[in-house]
Write the structure tokens for this entry.
Amino acid sequence: MNEAKRKLLNKRYRAEANFKLFGQIAIGLALLFLAVFMYKIFSKGYTAFQKTWIVTEVHYDKELMLIETDNPSLEDLENADYYDIAYKSMTRLDPSLPEEDDRQLIQMVAFTYEQEVKNHLLKNPSLLGKIVPIRLTASDDLDQVHKGNYPRDIPEEDRRVNDYQLKIYDMLNERGDILSKFNLSFFTNPDSREAELAGIASSFMGTVFSILVCLAFSFPIAVLAAIYLEEFAPKNKFTDFIEVNINNLAAVPSIVFGLLGLGVLLAVFNLPRSTPLVGGITLSLMTLPTIIIAARASLKAVPPSIREAALAMGASNMQTTMHHTVPLSMPGTLSGTIIGLAQALGETAPLILIGMVAFVNTIPGTPVDPAASLPVQIYIWSESAERGFVEKVSACIMVLLGFLILMNLAAQIIRHKFERKWN
Amino acid sequence: MRGNGTNMTKISAKNVNVFYGSKQALFDVSLDIMDKEVTALIGPSGCGKSTFLRCLNRMNDVIDICKVEGSIKMDELELNSRKLDVVRLRENVGMVFQKPNPFPKTIYENVSYGPTIHGMAQSKSELDQIVEMSLKKAALWEEVKDRLDEIGTGLSGGQQQRLCIARAISVSPEVILMDEPCSALDPIATAQIEELIDDLKKEHTIVIVTHSMSQAARVSQKTGFFHLGKLIEFGDTEKIFKNPDNQQTQDYITGRFG
């Protein structure tokens, strides 16, 4: 081997090594970004899955509750007065506190404490007349203090938790009367102005309904369109034109679809505002081209030999398509559909335009009830000033990501398990 | 191999021209295919033999730009007519393709598909019978009778091709077209198929396109030699291989080109 040839060979090896190196750097960077992103979200958000409770005692005093009968029915308990006993259950934490400063103690629990006291009794009516321990939802500020997210060393006048409240908190904490439990209400509560009570139930259900509506509208239309275009339509200028426009549709910014939903679905058809029905139809406009493209690709991937076999057996075009081509293309179509829905799942802009950004403190039971959706919920909470919402934003992102990962996993599984490999 | 033909013409092609767009693929092909005989079409790649075969069951319809001129008569029926019902035609003219292409369904479903769509069986037992008969005729029954509900694509290449033959004969076609049915098979599977072809010609007219001249010599009674879209020579297989009239045919069968 002469010198020139060896040089050339070395150069070729070097080029390959460099190429590999660049590829590895690119992947490394991508993983690094992902890791930073995940770390940020998880480190901020995991505390949202913990809820802080204050343990105190409540005296279900019939007199204070204005119950006159000896054997009160559930209805009587329902209508009883809980204000005083709930109030007292908090003030008993520090009997030495002058009455005019009571609010300082009351502010340490969520404003629903009266309701919580009431629910506790309604669940166990036998507690009437007794003094029993009860746990009450801590206020979001105290919750943040307990989770260590709230600085204690800033001047008192800048702090939402004053020195007295911190003293009571430290006392309770030493006694073991501050509890940290799994935050079930984050999943079962609708949105709230109070961070300690806010949950994702309404936005989660809104998302589920939107996705179902989106699926119901986009899947049949898209699959039929794809089958027609791929198997029946003549190949001419007009169908080329349609194909180009389907691809264009897939590239239209989502906010434009939001405007369309606003201008047509709400203004012309007068569908109910802020509902998953309108949200789902708007999203289906976005999903439609994605599914059409996926379905056409998987129809194209069915080898012509299968079509020829069926045609040569005397099957009509329709029979060939419905008996053979479409069933074989279904796995690809379905995984494309799920990918399309996963995209729709994360859409925020069109939903904001059709009013799904409204504050909804009820859990929607049908697609025509007002609702938010998970990404919009993230947007709403991220605009809130209160510290308690910071962790909620991250937690909500985690739920949304979990949802997305599940869907993409389903798409992958369908593809691997059912999609036929043609050789 | 001696024929047992009825000496009646089954298919008669006259002046067939085929165009793919502006490119002409067949030039004035005229030939007669005899009933219950095996007719082999040979020639180098791209010579138009498969194109001619696909005229016989109108599979060229699938290709948008393909245009067929001339007359192809099967018995009294004009095949190259717009009014022809291709579904009925293909019920009568079965086809076996170059690459085994069973449906990715069970063996049973593969064979029962044709009879089902054409409404040939009134009951399940009748359908079972058709499936069994077809598989027996295709010499596959003994190998698959215990696993009819297995997927057809899981069989070996030779078995798949015999499954495709069983599928083709399930609707009792008068004519079976075979487009290089053995080109993807090993010699043993090829021998099985050739034996099968010999059996099938008792009941069916067979037209086979093949690359293998020895195969054409073994299985066919008539042979047509195509070159560059023209039918160069057509006649008894024995004559074509022993004493062809045309120099090109002579060159091809002796392996001097192609």
Q: What stands out?
A: Residues 144 and 150 of chain A are 5 Å apart (CA to CA). Chain A has a mean pLDDT of 90. The first strand of chain A starts at residue 50 and ends at 59. Strands of chain A lie at 50-59, 131-137, 178-182.
